[in-house]
Structure formats: structure tokens, C-alpha cells
Amino acid sequence: MSTDATTLLTRTVGTGDDVITYDIRGDLATATTERPPLFLFGAPMGASGFAALAGFFTDRPVITYDPRGADRNPLGTTDITVQQHVDDLHRVISALETGPVDAFGNSGGGVTLLALATAHPEDLRRVVAHEPATGAVLPDADRIGAVIDDMKRTYAEQGEGAAMAKFVQLVMLQGELPADYLDQPAPDPAMFGMPAVDDGVRTNPLLRNMPSVTSYAPDIDALRALGDRLAIGFGVESGDAMAARAARAIAAAVGIHPVEFPSHHGGFSDQPGMPGDPAGVAARLREVIG
After folding, report:
1. How far is residue 227's CA from residue 223's CA, in Å, rounded to a whole number?
2. I need a labelling partner for 206 at 20 to 30 A (CA). Which of 110, 163, 216, 224 fits?
3. Model pLDDT for residues 14-23, shown as the tens digit of each residue
4. What does residue 127 show for φ and ψ, rounded to 5 degrees?
């Protein structure tokens, strides 16, 4: 493999519906104990969403992947569980044959990283969970669960546009969900540029990740046992959105200070209409992983 860190090698693990596609930037042979591969991932965001961030780490191999059910992997319609994501991540890391990796997991990926660190701590040197999107650790967990259940019913009955409009409304909310949240009128999908007509497709990986990801309760004792290998971060622009609140709540339960990162929930990339700060996030991540 080329030692050029911009060179992209694509590989897969698994067969059939369990195929997982991942990319390697740089030469795995250059990895060391002190500077192992850096694995960047989300859920359901795929490898392409981390390209900008990966470009700032040319001094080590960088791994990105497409989570189960997303992008280059087989599609499906059944719900996806945190345990499936954990098994997939473990398979990819094992296939690298480099030993433990440093990992940055965002959103649903932050949740699955915490679960991976619990199930396979030997896979990881440094663990950086950025805004893990679980409501289970929050005081309004029951209300969040009810909203997710309603979202899933909407997806089944009305399709992607109506359900995703409810998802966007949820993640934009600042602070705890009010008791009458579900009594409010449903958002118009057109407000978010989404179709109101049901196309009959039910393969959306984000909606398939729920409720498993959003209801995941971290094993606080197992996380505490990681010591200084663990960091839990949030974007300074995220305010009191659910995932940022979850990051602070988990850090408090573990007994560590949450790490502030520049920008917002997806600030490691530049999305249309949502400019981020990939350079700033990369600099902060480098400080955290050493």
C-alpha cells in the first residue's frame, strides 16, 4: 500500500447482508503503539462525511467506514441494533491487524463507540465519543422515548419525509422536552425540504437505528474503568440539544469533565447550509488523543 496518506484503499469484511465497507488512508505498516490508526465514524453517517476531518491526519493511517445499512453496504428494512454496530466495528478493527486503534465516534457512532469500549476495550487505545445521541441518560428520557416511538409509527404509516421532519424538529430543540411535546402539531416536511408524499421505501438507516441507539444506556462502571483513555465531547455551538446534553450527562456520571470541541454536532465537516470547522475539530481531537 502506498505511504501517501491521501491514498484511499477500500476493503470489505463479511458476506451477504453483513458486508461492511471501509476505507484506509495511508499505510497500516506505519502504525505504531504510540500512533495507531485513527478510526473516524458515525451512525448513520458514512465514510464520506469524515473525509474532511481525515485529511488533517496525514501522520498516521486513518480508517473510515459505512455503517450497517448505509451508503455502500447492503440496504434493508429491519431495525439495526447497537450490538450489530459493535460487532461490525470489532470485525473491521480485527481485520486491520494493527492492534488497538484510536477512535472518534460521532452521534450514533458515539453511542456505538461507548458500547464497543464496553464490549471490546482491547480494540481501543483512546476513546473519543462526540455527542453520543442517546436519551437514556437524560431526565426527560421517557419523553424522548415516546417521541422516538411516535417517529417510528410515523415512518411506518406515512414514510420518510414525515418521520424525518419530526426527527429534525427533535434534534433542533434546545433543553428538555416539554410534557406536551407530542400534543403539538406535526411539522410540515416541506419546512425542511422533505417530500410529503410517501414513496413506500423503508430503508432509511437513521430511522432503522432507532430506538436501539437512542435508548442505549451506557455501562458507566465499564466506562469509568477506561480511565484517561476515555473522553466525551460536545460542540460548543450545540447548546442544550439532546446529544450535547447526553455527552455532558454521561461525562458527569463517569466522573470526568466533558471536552469542548469547536463548532456543532457535525462540525467536523462542512454540510450545505451548516458550515463547520473541520480544522478546529481536528486540532482539538489531536490534543485529546495525543
Report:
1. 8
2. 224
3. 999 999 999 9
4. -120, 115
Residue 106 contacts residue 45 (beta carbons within 8 Å): yes
Q: Which of 141-177 are b and which e, b meaning 16 or more Cβ less than 10 Å from the residue's Cβ?
A: bebbbebbebbbebbeebbbbbbbbbbbbbeeeeeeb
8-135+212-289: CATH number: 3.40.50.1820
Query: Residue 202 in 3-state DSSP?
Result: coil
Cell numbers for 200 = 413506500
91: which 3 cell numbers?
470485525
Instruction: Return the amino acid letter for 169.
Output: Q
Pairwise CA distance, residues 136 & 82, whole Å: 14
pLDDT per position as a tens digit, 172-229: 999 999 999 999 999 999 999 999 999 999 999 999 999 999 999 999 999 999 999 9
Kindly give, in sequence order, each residue whose CB lies less than 8 Å from that of residue 83, ignoring residues fewer than 6 positions away: 115, 212
Tally the C-alpha atoms within 13 A of residue 111's C-alpha that lie toward its C-beta: 28
